[in-house]
Amino acid sequence: MIFAMPAFLWYLVFLVGPLASVFVVSLTNATTLIAPREFVGLENFRTMFGDDVFWMAVRNTAVQVGVVVPVMVVLGFMLGYYLFLRPPLAGLLRILFFTSALLSVATKAMVFYAILAPDGLVNQGLETIGLETLARNWLADPATTLPVIMAVDLWSGVGFLAVLFGAQLTALPADVIEASRIDGCGHWRSMWHVAYGMIRGFVGIVAMLQYLWTLFLSAATVLLLTSGGPGTSSVTLSYLVYSKAFQQSDIGYSQAVGVVLFVLGLAGAVAIRSALRSRV
């Protein structure tokens, strides 16, 4: 018990403490972290639920999570299975897949800015092939800003998940996959009916973590590429936490959104883990 005390104290100070402070601050009218504050009860939550920007952020976050997480996990698993088959240049493919995960958020944002700027690679390519009518300011069009944010998420995460799934699949007994081939299963059936079933629990853990990463960590990409605009077309809940706290000096409202994020994160993580729990 004594040897576990340092870890227990670390958990209380750096995890439980900040989490509890989110709930406490959400019940105050705090404007900064050091300014005097007063208890206002549920006023921040009433303001938040009556705010159209909040509901736009909920919608955008639901679309982002609902598209990015399933697509990323499915594509990551399929690419991981391909790596598991040891194709030519498998080592090089692992490096290429993993490279995007090594880049900072700022670097990823600059790459996509260079590609999607009005004079960027995408518009230049469209003009080259005679499709200049499709060219647009991808980062300033309300119809494309959120898809761009989701594209950044997918580009940076699919390869990383592929490496994770590929590594996990190598731990499977080789004779099981071989037996499925002898029984007449093609790669597709072996992948989904055999390999997936054997690492279903691991897939559930990865999907749960990816859900949390997407839910909580989109603020940096939104800030660097669109700042939530144009208007509120690309505002997400995590960006709204940042915006209210550091741009509008409304810490109480910001932490009320943080409470909603915590509840969504906990509920979603439990639901995903339960749905994809290993059946072995």
Characterise this structure.
The protein has 13 helices and no strands. The chain has 280 residues and is mainly alpha-helical. It has a single domain (44-275), classed as MetI-like fold. Helix 8 (174-182) packs antiparallel against helix 9 and helix 12 packs antiparallel against helix 13. The model has no long low-confidence stretch (mean pLDDT 90).
Structural class: mainly alpha
CATH domain fold name: MetI-like fold
How many distinct domains? 1
Mean pLDDT, all residues: 90
Oligomer: single chain
Shape: globular
What's the CATH C level?
Mainly Alpha
Secondary-structure arrangement, i.e. CATH architecture: Orthogonal Bundle
SSE series: HHHHHHHHHHHHH
Family: Belongs to the binding-protein-dependent transport system permease family.
Keywords: Cell membrane, Membrane, Transmembrane, Transmembrane helix, Transport
Membrane topology: Multi-pass membrane protein
Subcellular location: Cell membrane
Task: Briefly summarize what is shown.
This protein has a single domain (44-275), classed as MetI-like (MetI-like fold, Orthogonal Bundle). The protein is 71% helix and 0% strand. It has helices at residues 5-25, 43-49, 52-84, 90-102, 105-116, 121-128, 145-169, 174-182, 187-198, 200-216, 219-225, 237-247, 251-275.
Write the layout of secondary structure elements.
Elements: H1 5-25, H2 43-49, H3 52-84, H4 90-102, H5 105-116, H6 121-128, H7 145-169, H8 174-182, H9 187-198, H10 200-216, H11 219-225, H12 237-247, H13 251-275
Helix pairs in contact: 2-13, 3-7, 3-10, 4-7, 5-11, 7-10, 8-9, 10-13, 11-12, 12-13
